[in-house]
Amino acid sequence: MSLGTTLAMGQTSPADSTRIRLHQQSEADEYYKAPASKDDSPYYQQDRPMQRGLKRVGVGLTLGLSAPYGNGIEVSYLQSEKLDINGGVGLNLSGFKAGAGVRYFTRGEKGFSPFIGGSLVRSGGVSELAFTNANGQESKYKMHPSTLAHFRGGVRFKYKSIAWLGTTGYGLNLAGKDHELLSGPVSQDAYTMLNFMKAGGLELSGTLQISF
């Protein structure tokens, strides 16, 4: 007699009772069966940010001193929760700038996260700059195009789709020569201004970013 027939007739023998208990235990074991790994657990998968529709693309506006991509637009893509690839274009005192880089966020997609990064950038330079000294003499200089390596670090504050990134760092001119005198007398004041305007050097910048 089958287990189903026995239950339908309301009659149970000791053997049937044993089979019922084994059947119930088997169902319980199947229901509470632990996943082979935590990656198989639906609860773990729900908790992972990458499974919750992480917003990967970010567009930002950057302003500041010696930012890798100048004062302009930056676009980034989250390759993972902690690593993004970014690039941008803009203008600063040394001319047009464009480049690409990476950032590593130590706390992933948390609301507050420090980060480190680097960028490789091309600066277009300025063909001619004129300065007049205290004696009324004019000097003309050229700011050379240059390739720069920027080493950066900072913090990101993020709320939902909006983030602010405060960054400091240093841009190293890989080309060597920043500027040269085209005509006129040498001016110490002009050199001081050119050193301030040149591509690279100390970075202090901020980026307002929207992700989608």
Characterize the structure shown.
The protein has 212 residues and is of the alpha+beta class. The chain folds into 2 domains: 3-47; 55-211, Porin (Beta Barrel). Helix content is 19%, strand content 50%. It is built from 4 helices and 11 strands; from the N terminus they run H-H-H-E-E-E-E-E-E-E-E-E-E-H-E. The protein has helices at residues 3-9, 14-31, 42-47, 188-197, and strands at residues 57-65, 71-78, 83-92, 95-105, 112-123, 126-132, 138-143, 146-159, 162-173, 179-183, 201-211. Strands 1-2-3-4-5-8-9-11 form an 8-stranded antiparallel beta barrel. The protein has a 3-stranded antiparallel β-sheet with strand order 6-7-10, with no helix packed on it. The longest helix has 18 residues, at 14-31. The protein is elongated and about 115 Å long. Mean pLDDT is 84; it is low at 42-51.
DSSP strand content: over 45%
Strand order of the largest sheet: 1-2-3-4-5-8-9-11
Largest sheet: 8 strands, antiparallel, barrel
Second-tier CATH architecture of the largest domain: Beta Barrel
Number of E-state strands: 11
Mean pLDDT: 84
Number of domains: 2
Q: Could you estimate the helical fraction of the residues in percent?
A: 10-25%
Please give the oligomerization state of what you see: single chain
Parts with pLDDT < 50 across at least 5 consecutive residues: 42-51
Terminal-residue CA separation: 63 Å
* Count of helical regions: 4
Structural class comes to alpha+beta
Level-1 CATH class name of the largest domain: Mainly Beta
Q: What is the approximate shape?
A: elongated
* Helix and strand sequence: HHHEEEEEEEEEEHE
Please state the CA-atom Rg, rounded to the nearest Å: 32 Å
Q: What would the CATH topology of the largest domain be?
A: Porin
